[in-house]
Amino acid sequence: MTYKQWVNGDILQAADQNALSLQTINRFADATARDAAITSPSEGMFVYLTGSNALQYYDGSAWVAADISGGVSWSGSTANGIGTYGSSSSIVAESTATYDGTTLQLTTSGGGLKLDGLASSNANTLDDYEEGEAAVTLTASGGGTITVGTNNTIAYTKIGRVVHIQGELNVASVSSPSTQLSIAGLPFTSSNTLTDMADRSWLSTSVMFLSSAVTSGDIIAMVAANSTTISYFSGGGGSGVQYFANLVDSGTSILIGGSYITDS
User: Do 44 and 162 reside in the same domain of the chain?
Assistant: First the structure.
């Protein structure tokens, strides 16, 4: 059948009417009404069934569903799921998607993957990432005060359960501090579920410009289990550890870097 175009003065013949009917979409309530009206359908003819809101065409041997996009459909019932390949004609919505490629690359500036405390129980799953700065304070366990100066923050990056920290603090003033020096206010609480003291973290540190020298060995910094505090002492002396908060004075600098483990 040739596509018909009309001009002024044309006479509408019965054949023309039939040609027009083949170039339109006829509407029927259902397939029964369609078959009763169209007893000899032609290939390529379209109909619309109002009862089921179905668009169909005749392929030369049967009425089939019209799918202009090539037959792609959705399956699955996961709300807010990720669409993955199901087959050549289906996309599956699922809660867990597996990427079977080589490199997943994000190229737009300002974008990224957000892993916001997902708390997965799978040991091989990266479920958290955060970076920022935390304001901290200096304390003395035996009393007195240590006031931090303008350098009073540490930077941190949390990847999974490991928290990396670094920074330099300066002391503005003191008032009779004694016993153990500590940095309080770490951004995350350290683990208390690991065995054999594996939840203790030992950090790289230096304390400079004390009023006098520490006498019993290297200065050590530790994050104990279930803590948001870095505790300082000096080890190596024959009489055991030495606390030196009393040696901190105005102008003391504390340099810290390292990492500790959390439970989430």
Answer: no
Do 182 and 156 belong to one domain? Answer: yes
What is the C-alpha separation between 183 and 186, in angstroms, rounded? 8
Q: What is the CATH number of the domain that holds 197?
A: 2.60.90
CA 66 to chain centre: 40
Q: How far apart are CA 215 and CA 218, in angstroms?
A: 9
Tell me, yes or no, whether 2 lies in a domain: no
State the amino acid at position 52 in one-letter form: S
Q: What Cα–Cα distance (Å) separates residue 134 from each residue in 20, 173, 180?
A: 76, 21, 22
Q: How far apart are the first and last CA of the chain?
A: 71
Six token digits for residue 21 = 């009917």
Tell which residue, 167, 143, 151, has the closest CA to residue 230.
Answer: 167
Please tell me the total count of domains within the chain. 3
The whole domain housing 236 covers: 129-261
Q: What's the CA gap between 95 and 102, in Å, rounded?
A: 21
Residues 148 and 251 in one domain: yes
Please tell me the total number of residues recorded for the chain in this structure: 264
Rounded to two decimals, the pTM is 0.68
- Is residue 234 located within the same domain as residue 157? yes
Non-local CB neighbours of 197 within 8 Å, separated by 6+ positions: 225
Tell me whether residue 190 is in a domain: yes
Domain match, 198 and 215 both: yes
Give the pLDDT score at 167.
Answer: 97
pLDDT in tens, 82-97: 888 877 778 888 888 7
Q: Which of 227, 220, 228, 226 is nearest to 256 (CA)?
A: 220
DSSP lists the bridge partners of residue 203 as 221
Collapsed DSSP state (helix, strand, coil) of residue 232: strand
